[in-house]
């Protein structure tokens, strides 16, 4: 699961810095013969000529007009003593160039503008980097963190994710030095690092950060911009990451470890007070018990999940839970019980007028009958699913149910077809050749129809 990054603090409204150097302002100049300037090869000569002949343009202003925007920002940082900010900006420019070279021609980043070609981003970097450096000199690490977080929030576009990740990491390092906020910034830094690691597929590292976030937020009243408490968010993140961890464990056949992890996920869902999450956690835990061979425990937990999804009128959840129950029972050879479960599903769906659930129930019943070789019954249920799908005005769903109808019809026809192939006699061969020439109706038996025609033709008048 690729997840959306959560910003704990609201995104700052970024403005152009008031102290930014006036490098791009063009002076109003009298008409001059600029051809003379191009004849002067010496740099100092150019500066002297501009200073003497263009009123109000100093040597520094002349250089500013000649230099690139990036160079002017770097010069101003150094002139004002922000050597760390200059070094950090220069490093970021080099990092972008290295990423571009590593990706090579034809890549998405190859066709993007470099950091040096985007003045708005350079403005943000200049403003917040210098403010962070000034705060660091004063030992005000909470202000350093806030400025770094503003930078992380400034670069949320997909092409700028590397910049955002970089500044979230800087926030994490700075948060360890903040001592006056009770650990709030440290908690924010942990959750953001968790989201970064989760986005890169580093699930174990993400879990460690979310666990630290949870521990720091226990008993706190901190809330995000939506009014949700940090501890609630920690529970939700841990529920999700534990589920992802368990999924990887199940892939590796580590069933008992997966069960332990999913029990923790269920605990987090209950602590968060999120009933939907609790139903999902119970459903996943039941599957883990099923894969480990503990079928009765799996069914018991699955019944809890079914009760939750029924109360929530969650059609998708009900469909998955009933399908899992039917699969567990079928694996034990209890097809009759599986059909009973699905019959209850159908009844609940019809009573609650849940059209999607009616479709799901018919499809599941059709699948069970199809697997048992009851192709006529399977076709009937798939047909009912197709009719219910039409009421939802969902073309993909109608197409899917039609495909199931076709499968059941094909299986139904294959019974007769295979019997003639297995017979290996002249009469059966005639049946097969007749069907190959005339397949107008897949439900009827064209072989019988063809033989009837032949018999009628051979009768004397």
Automatic annotation (TrEMBL):
<keyword id="KW-0802">TPR repeat</keyword>
<dbReference type="InterPro" id="IPR051476">
    <property type="entry name" value="Bac_ResReg_Asp_Phosphatase"/>
</dbReference>
<dbReference type="GO" id="GO:0036126">
    <property type="term" value="C:sperm flagellum"/>
</dbReference>
<dbReference type="GO" id="GO:0005737">
    <property type="term" value="C:cytoplasm"/>
</dbReference>
<dbReference type="InterPro" id="IPR019734">
    <property type="entry name" value="TPR_rpt"/>
</dbReference>
<keyword id="KW-0963">Cytoplasm</keyword>
<protein>
    <recommendedName>
        <fullName>Tetratricopeptide repeat protein 29</fullName>
    </recommendedName>
</protein>
<keyword id="KW-0677">Repeat</keyword>
<dbReference type="InterPro" id="IPR011990">
    <property type="entry name" value="TPR-like_helical_dom_sf"/>
</dbReference>
<dbReference type="GO" id="GO:0003341">
    <property type="term" value="P:cilium movement"/>
</dbReference>
<comment type="function">
    <text>Axonemal protein which is implicated in axonemal and/or peri-axonemal structure assembly and regulates flagellum assembly and beating and therefore sperm motility.</text>
</comment>
């Amino acid at each position: 699961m690729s997840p959306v990054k959560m910003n704990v603090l609201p995104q700052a409204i970024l403005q152009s810095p008031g102290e930014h150097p006036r490098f791009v302002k063009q002076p109003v100049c009298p008409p001059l013969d600029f051809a003379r300037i191009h004849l002067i090869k010496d740099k100092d000569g150019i500066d002297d000529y501009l200073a003497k002949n263009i009123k109000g343009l100093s040597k520094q202003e002349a250089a500013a007009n000649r230099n690139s925007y990036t160079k002017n920002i770097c010069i101003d940082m150094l002139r004002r003593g922000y050597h760390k900010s200059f070094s950090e900006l220069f490093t970021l420019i080099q990092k972008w160039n290295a990423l571009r070279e590593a990706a090579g021609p034809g890549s998405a980043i190859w066709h993007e503008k470099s950091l040096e070609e985007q003045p708005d981003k350079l403005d943000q970097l200049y403003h917040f980097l210098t403010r962070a450096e000034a705060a660091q000199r004063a030992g005000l690490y909470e202000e350093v963190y806030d400025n770094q977080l503003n930078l992380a929030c400034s670069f949320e576009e997909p092409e700028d994710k590397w910049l955002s990740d970089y500044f979230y990491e800087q926030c994490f390092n700075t948060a360890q030095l903040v001592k006056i906020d009770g650990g709030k910034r440290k908690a924010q830094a942990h959750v953001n690092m968790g989201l970064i690691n989760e986005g890169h597929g580093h699930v174990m590292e993400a879990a460690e950060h979310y666990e630290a976030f949870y521990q720091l937020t226990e008993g706190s009243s901190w809330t995000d911009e939506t009014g949700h408490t940090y501890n609630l968010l920690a529970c939700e993140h841990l529920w999700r990451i534990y589920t992802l961890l368990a999924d990887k464990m199940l892939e590796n056949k580590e069933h008992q470890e997966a069960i332990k992890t999913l029990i923790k996920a269920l605990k987090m869902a209950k602590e968060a007070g999120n009933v939907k999450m609790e139903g999902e956690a119970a459903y996943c835990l039941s599957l883990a018990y099923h894969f480990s061979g503990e079928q009765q425990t799996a069914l018991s937990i699955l019944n809890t999940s079914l009760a939750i999804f029924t109360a929530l009128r969650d059609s998708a959840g009900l469909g998955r839970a009933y399908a899992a129950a039917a699969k567990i029972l079928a694996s034990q050879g209890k097809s009759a019980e599986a059909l009973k479960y699905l019959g209850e599903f159908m009844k609940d769906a019809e009573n609650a007028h849940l059209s999607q659930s009616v479709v799901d129930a018919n499809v599941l019943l059709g699948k069970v009958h199809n697997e048992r070789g009851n192709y006529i019954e399977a076709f009937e249920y798939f047909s009912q699913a197709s009719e219910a799908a039409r009421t939802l005005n969902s073309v993909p769903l109608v197409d899917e149910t039609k495909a199931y109808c076709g499968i059941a019809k094909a299986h139904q026809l294959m019974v007769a077809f295979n019997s003639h192939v297995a017979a290996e006699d002249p009469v059966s061969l005639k049946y097969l050749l007749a069907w190959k020439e005339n397949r107008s109706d897949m439900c009827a038996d064209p072989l019988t129809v063809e033989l009837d025609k032949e018999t009628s033709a051979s009768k004397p008048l």
